[in-house]
Design brief:
This protein is an alpha+beta fold and 400 residues long. It is built from 13 helices and 10 strands.
C-alpha cells in the first residue's frame, strides 16, 4: 500500500478494504495451485464419478494450506479465519466439492480439537491433520432432525469402565467414506433441564467395529459424498471424549461462526465462477450477428451477477475480519451465510439463463455451479433458522 493510500485510510478512521500483500499472495498461490491441480476437465470428472479429490488434498497438505487453522505449536502455521476464507473461496471457484474438503478439515477437524480437545488429543492429531495424513468428518445430523437436532437426537453414549459405547444413527455425514475419524455428537445424559445439556462429543476411529455407512445420492457437491452412519455398540476410549462431558453442545457453538463464514466463502467461490463463465460466454456467443453481451437484457443480468458477488464478498470478509480480531461476529457470520447462499443461487440461475440451452448441458460447468450452491440455503443451517437467529439478536421473541 502506498504512503498516500495509507494516509487516506487513516483520515477515514482506518477503514481499508485492502487485504494486504500477504493475504493477496496467499490468494494468488491458491489460485495457481487450483489451475495446476484442478483443470476444468478434472473437476467435471470428480463430479460425474463422485470421486474424492485425493490429489488435491495431497497438494493442499504439501503446500501447507491444511495447517492454516492449526497453531504453530501443533505443526500448523497459525493462520486466521480470513486466510481460511481465501482458501475456501479459491477452491470453490473451481469446485464446491473441493472447497468443502478444506472446509471440513479446517472447521470440523482442526478447530474442533483446538477449541475443546485435551492436550493429548491436540498433540496426537493436530500435526497429522496439518500434514494431510488424517481426515475428520462431522457426524451430527439425525434422520428426525437437522435444525432441531437437540430435540430429535436419539444417538446415545453410555459410559462403561474404560470406554464409552455409542448407539444410534446419523445422516449427512460428509466424507465419512474417506475419514479416518468421525466427530460424533451424542446424548450422554437423559435427565436434563435444557435440551442443550447432557450432550457430549467424541472422536471415533472410522473403522471401529459396529460402524456402517450408507451412501446418499445427492444432486450436487457430489465429489464429497455424504452418508448415513449407523453406530451399533461402538466402543470409544474414554480419552477420546472431546472437551467436557455433558457440555458438548456448548463447545460446538464455538465452531458455528467459523462454519457460517466458511459456508459463505463456499457460496462466494461458486458465484464468482458462475459470473466469470457467464461474462466470457456473453463475449463469445453470437446471435443475430452480434455477441449476446451486446444485448441489454444480457448486460443487465451480468451486471447484477457481479454486483451480487461483490455484496456477498463484503459481508463475508467483514464477518471474517471481525472474528480475526476476536470481536463478536455472530450476527454478521449468519448474515454472510444468508446473503452469500441466496445470491449464489440467484447468480448461478442467471448464469443458466445467459447460457440458454447450453447451460443445461453437462458439457459446461454452469449447471454444476447451479446444482452445488443450492445446498447452502438448507445446510449446514437453513435460511429460516438464520433469520430466526438474527431476529432474536435484535430483541424479538423467540419464534421456535
Amino acid at each position: 500500500m502506498s504512503n498516500q493510500t495509507m494516509q487516506v485510510a487513516e483520515e477515514v478512521g482506518g477503514l481499508n478494504f485492502d487485504l494486504g500483500k500477504e493475504k493477496e499472495f496467499l490468494r494468488q498461490n491458491v489460485r495457481t495451485l487450483v489451475e495446476r491441480e484442478v483443470p476444468r476437465e478434472y473437476a467435471r470428472e470428480l463430479d460425474e464419478k463422485e470421486e474424492f479429490p485425493h490429489k488435491v488434498w495431497k497438494a493442499l497438505a504439501e503446500n501447507g494450506y491444511l495447517g492454516i487453522p492449526i497453531a504453530e505449536e501443533y505443526g500448523g502455521v497459525s493462520g486466521d479465519i480470513v486466510d481460511m476464507v481465501i482458501v475456501t473461496e479459491e477452491l470453490a471457484r473451481r469446485s464446491g466439492s473441493i472447497g468443502l474438503t478444506f472446509f471440513m478439515s479446517s472447521c470440523f477437524g482442526a478447530k474442533t480439537l483446538q477449541f475443546a480437545g485435551s492436550e493429548m488429543l491436540k498433540r496426537k492429531y493436530l500435526p497429522l491433520l496439518a500434514e494431510g495424513k488424517l481426515m475428520f468428518s462431522f457426524s451430527l445430523t439425525e434422520p428426525d432432525g437437522g435444525t432441531d437436532v437437540l430435540g430429535a437426537m436419539k444417538t446415545r453414549a453410555v459410559e462403561k469402565d474404560d470406554h464409552w459405547v455409542i448407539n444410534g444413527q446419523k445422516v449427512w455425514t460428509t466424507s465419512a467414506n474417506v475419514a479416518d475419524y468421525l466427530v460424533v455428537v451424542a446424548r450422554s445424559k437423559e435427565d436434563v433441564v435444557k435440551k442443550a445439556d447432557g450432550i457430549s462429543v467424541f472422536l471415533v476411529k472410522s473403522d471401529t467395529p459396529g460402524i456402517r455407512l450408507r451412501k446418499l445420492d445427492k444432486v450436487g457437491i457430489r465429489a464429497t459424498q455424504s452418508f448415513e452412519v449407523f453406530y451399533d455398540n461402538v466402543k470409544v476410549p474414554k480419552d477420546h471424549l472431546i472437551g467436557e462431558k455433558d457440555r458438548g453442545f456448548y463447545q460446538t457453538l464455538k465452531m458455528l461462526n467459523n462454519e457460517r463464514i466458511l459456508t459463505a466463502a463456499l457460496c462466494l467461490g461458486e458465484a464468482q465462477a458462475a459470473f466469470e463463465d457467464a461474462l466470457q460466454y456473453a463475449k463469445e456467443r453470437r446471435a443475430f450477428g452480434k455477441p449476446i453481451g451486446q444485448f441489454q437484457a444480457i448486460q443487465h443480468k451480468i451486471s447484477w451477477m457481479r454486483t451480487k458477488v461483490e455484496l456477498a464478498r463484503l459481508i463475508t470478509y467483514k464477518a471474517a475480519w471481525l472474528q480475526s480480531l476476536g470481536r463478536d461476529c455472530a450476527v454478521e457470520a449468519n448474515m454472510a451465510k444468508l446473503v452469500a447462499a441466496n445470491f449464489a443461487c440467484e447468480v448461478t440461475d442467471a448464469g443458466m439463463q445467459v447460457f440458454g440451452g447450453y447451460g443445461y448441458s453437462r458439457e459446461y460447468d454452469m449447471q454444476r455451479y447451479w446444482r452445488d450452491c443450492r445446498l447452502h440455503k438448507v445446510g449446514p443451517v437453513s435460511d429460516e433458522m438464520v433469520l430466526n437467529f438474527i431476529g432474536e439478536r435484535m430483541g424479538l421473541p423467540r419464534s421456535y
